[in-house]
Amino acid sequence: MKLITAVFCVAASLAAAQETSDPGTVITGARIFDGLSPDLIEGQDVLIQDGMIAAIGAALAPPEGSAVIDANGRVMIPGLSDVHWHVTMAEVPQTTLLTGDAYEIAARAVPTAERTLMRGFTTVRDLGGNSFALKKLIDSGILVGPRMLVAGPPLTQTGGHYDYRLPHDVPADSTMDYWGRTAFFVIGDGDAEVRKRAREIFRMGASQIKIAAGGGVASIFDPLDVRQYSLEEMKAIVDVAESYNSYVAAHVIADEAVRMAVEAGIKSIEHGMLLERETLELMKEKGVWLSTQPLLDDEDRMVFPTAESTKKWLVATAGTEKVYKMAKEIGVKIAFGTDALMDPEMAAKQGKYLSKLEKLGFTPYEALKMATSDNAELMEMAGPRHPYQKGPLGEISVGAYADLILVDGNPLEDLSLVANPEDNFDLIMKNGVIYKNDME
């Protein structure tokens, strides 16, 4: 019965493929990690047409005029994703927030987007900054970069993690500073104002909302332990997100602040390094994602200009290993992201951070699944605000987006291969378009 079904599915896929005018591309001889199963799929060819995977089967007959690529035993994996990325901040020096402007940030973000894609990250959830125009230009083919689920300006309280006003800018008659007017960071206080700001952010085209619900490391004026926003304010923001059939992600590290965010209905906890078991169990019960990052005080540590931020970094990263292992044991849904911030060298190590998951208790399969189909599941919580709905992301299946990588080696056996995409990723495809081809 399974064989008959498989033959029927291949036949149906080929029939559908013949209806398009795009002859497409056929990749033969690959060993396929589909993003879902721990076992490589052998002896199958993949037909790509109109940006989608049109057929998968043994010895597919290439349509007339199609390009044929012999993978020659390389491992095919889905395009990777990073669900805590800042295309407008990953490589921008922190001084730009003091002395630069929105045009400088936009100009710096263009090559950042292209470098992100060339590391094999074909999709990102962009969690902070005004990257709407960049997304539009990438999707239209004018610029090169990953698919982007944009959160737009993160919403913060006065004195919160994203209140980047200068020391003498308060007291102030208005919280709408330059970065607020350019939709980079937005400050809002009180039920009515946070509702208005959240609605404005969705009006800009956000896929999901990002708020600060607790203290942060890189920011100057908010201690790590503080709760930010009241329960009522957070519920108001969640209500707006739900009215748009989407959800709220929250920057938050300390346990008490995370618990309040979960009680308010927030569905994605960003960071959460200082979580305790009881709160993680609550997150599992309520289906809340832990979108933490493999940030450690190691050779890849973030470097900060102030002693206070360095101190907070040490406190936060001391909990990284514990929270990963405890969340995995409890069964909390865990996503992969990097939060590369204001440092081109850190951004360049995007794949290396994925490889660090092995040191934190995950098998190569678990890490790769996290950065492909698991991340895709998290991003689907954006519902109708998700901008890419023609097919699944993060998997290799008929009808999925043709976001593919051919790896010289088997990352299910050697996860460190993803740390060096320049040498080990021989082909990178997004939406059926080949952006890198070192197959010869």
UniProtKB/TrEMBL annotation:
The keyword Signal applies. Residues 75-432 form the Amidohydrolase-related domain. Residues 1-17 form the signal peptide. It comes from the Bacteria. Keywords: Signal. PANTHER family: ALPHA-D-RIBOSE 1-METHYLPHOSPHONATE 5-TRIPHOSPHATE DIPHOSPHATASE. This is Amidohydrolase family protein. The lineage of its organism: Bacteria, Pseudomonadati, Pseudomonadota, Alphaproteobacteria, Rhodobacterales.
